[in-house]
Design a protein that fits this description.
356 residues; Glucose Oxidase, domain 1; 10-stranded mixed β-sheet; 7-stranded mixed β-barrel; 31% strand; binds glutamine; amino-acid biosynthesis; ATP-binding; glutamine amidotransferase
């Protein structure tokens, strides 16, 4: 059945429907990973976005139980060049089971060129090349985080009664981020993004993790001040949206990247070791370099391609954060060691508390 990816400026790219033929407008973005389409579509950070896959064949290994990053796909739609739909576990059928639209047979290279020239541009997959969109989605709306954060605290227990307790501020966390902590023996409590910081404190966290999540980090500006007393004392780690939020809370600023970093092979340099890690990324915003006060922050990681800030460590508070994904699902595991560094920080803090 004929379909079109239609941009808000009216340009239309033809293809055929896959998934559910439903018009859902979203910001059109692109990701360059060769695999991982199931993890990408179920990553809550993509809420409100139509994801274009640059790899030309998508769906070729079906969908696999246990590989999802959440209970369902969250993106507004997908755009692919060719979709392999052989079996019952095929990507198109799976998207349809969740009511998510897609389009295949699209000249995705042309779409990517357009998105690179017009970052942040929105579009819709429609049956008609001239659809009428009532309202284009706004990344500054809180609705994206609201739709994917837990509604009440959820605990992931640990058998070890001495396990470090991580309170995870959930802005739309990926399952593999929680897994990265539980497999290291942590007890994890996910709390909704709006949780009163006093309540967070009463949970007696050893560490705080600020998660990934959808939308513009500035949608969460009203909450930042409340977290500052916590992050001044409790070891805190931020990932992607969480990194942007910690930076905003402690005085830096964020801005939109020209067309985002999305894929599984983004090179990031760690100046302190000279090492380059290949990282998994998915972000449209970044911490503005000129807003980082280097008497307060060390810039721990930089993107090799465009020099943008990819990691920060605070000089006075026990806070560090990265723009890329150390849980890397999909993606290479170069940066996984950051979870060990976080736990090391927590352990040291505990020793000080016991012996200090
Ligand atoms: N993966 C994420 O946490 C994304 C963060 C934010 N929504 C951005 O696009 O920059």
């Amino acid at each position: 059945m004929e379909a079109y990816l239609v941009f808000e400026d009216g340009e239309a790219f033809p293809g055929v429907w896959i998934g559910t033929p439903r018009e859902v407008p979203g910001e059109v973005v692109f990701t360059t990973g060769m695999t991982g389409y199931q993890e990408v579509t179920t990553d809550p950070s993509y809420a409100g976005q139509i994801v274009t896959f640059t790899y030309p064949l998508i769906g070729n290994y079906g969908t696999v139980r246990g590989e999802s990053e959440s209970d369902r796909p969250h993106c507004a739609g997908i755009v692919v060049s060719e979709c392999w739909q052989e079996t019952g576990s095929g990507l198109g059928k799976w998207l349809d089971a969740h009511g998510v639209p897609g389009i295949s047979g699209v000249d995705t290279r042309a779409v990517v060129k357009k998105v690179r020239e017009n970052g942040g541009i929105r579009g819709v997959i429609a049956s008609d090349p001239h659809p009428r969109v009532k309202e284009w989605p706004d990344p500054l709306s809180l609705q994206w985080v609201e739709g994917v954060s837990v509604k009440e605290p959820v605990s992931e227990p640990s058998e070890d009664s001495d396990a470090p307790h991580i309170v995870l501020l959930d802005f739309g966390v990926k399952a593999s981020m929680v897994r990265s902590l539980t497999k290291r023996g942590c007890r994890v409590t996910k709390v909704p993004y709006f949780t009163d910081p006093k309540k967070v404190e009463r949970l007696a966290p050893d560490g705080l993790l600020f998660s990934n999540g959808p939308g513009d980090p500035k949608a969460l500006l009203p909450f930042l001040e409340g977290w500052v007393p916590l992050i001044r004392r409790i070891p805190s780690m931020g990932i992607c949206l969480g990194h942007q939020l910690l930076a905003l809370a402690l005085g830096a600023d964020t801005e939109r990247l020209p067309f985002g970093h999305r894929g599984s092979n983004h090179p990031v340099r760690e100046p302190s070791t000279g090492k380059v890690w290949i990282t998994s990324q998915n972000h449209g915003y970044t911490v503005r370099t000129s807003s980082v006060d280097t008497s307060d922050w060390e810039i721990t990681h930089l993107h090799v391609n465009d020099g943008s800030v990819e990691g920060l460590a605070h000089r006075h508070f026990p806070v560090f954060s990265v723009q890329f994904h150390p849980e890397a699902h999909p993606g290479p595991a170069d940066a996984e060691t950051l979870f060990d560094r976080f736990l090391e920080k927590i352990r040291k803090g505990k020793e000080v508390a016991v012996h200090g």
